[in-house]
């Protein structure tokens, strides 16, 4: 019971206390902007070049994959057509 009243008194004092008036927003924003610029230079440019290179290599890979698919399914299609003709 005594601890509760001490705690209530302490919380009442804490509610009445006003925080110090210090404005650090400008400094914090400047630090964050400097950090953001540094991070962008270090990470985004190599990733941009990697994405461009992988995109350039993906287009010929898809063309080759379509050609291989068409070449490999052609004989199977002909065999299935011959079997279907015989089955009729």
Describe this structure in words.
This protein has 88 residues and is an all-alpha fold. It has one domain (25-87). It is 89% helix and 0% strand. The chain has 2 helices and no strands. The protein has helices spanning 2-16, 25-87. It starts with a helix and ends with a helix. The model has no long low-confidence stretch (mean pLDDT 83).
Brief digest:
The protein is mainly alpha-helical. It has helices at residues 2-16, 25-87.
What fraction of the residues are assigned to beta strands by DSSP?
A: under 5%
**From N to C, what is the helix and strand string?**
HH
* Shape type: elongated
**Low-pLDDT segments, ≥5 res:** none
**Biggest pleated-sheet summary:** none
Instruction: Provide the number of structural domains.
Output: 1
Give the CA-CA distance, first to last residue: 97 Å
Summarize model confidence as the mean pLDDT. Answer: 83
SS element count, helices:
2
Rg to the nearest angstrom? Answer: 36 Å
What's the SSE blueprint?
Blueprint: H1 2-16, H2 25-87
Describe the structure using short key phrases.
single chain, 88 residues, mainly alpha, 2 helices, 0% strand, elongated
């Amino acid at each position: 019971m005594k601890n509760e009243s001490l705690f209530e008194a302490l919380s009442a004092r804490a509610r009445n206390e006003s925080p110090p008036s210090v404005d650090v927003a400008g400094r914090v924003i400047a630090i964050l902007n400097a950090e953001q610029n540094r991070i962008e230079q270090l990470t985004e440019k190599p990733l941009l070049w990697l994405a461009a290179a992988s995109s350039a290599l993906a287009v010929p890979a898809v063309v080759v994959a379509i050609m291989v698919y068409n070449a490999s399914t052609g004989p199977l299609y002909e065999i299935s057509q011959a079997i279907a003709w015989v089955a009729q």
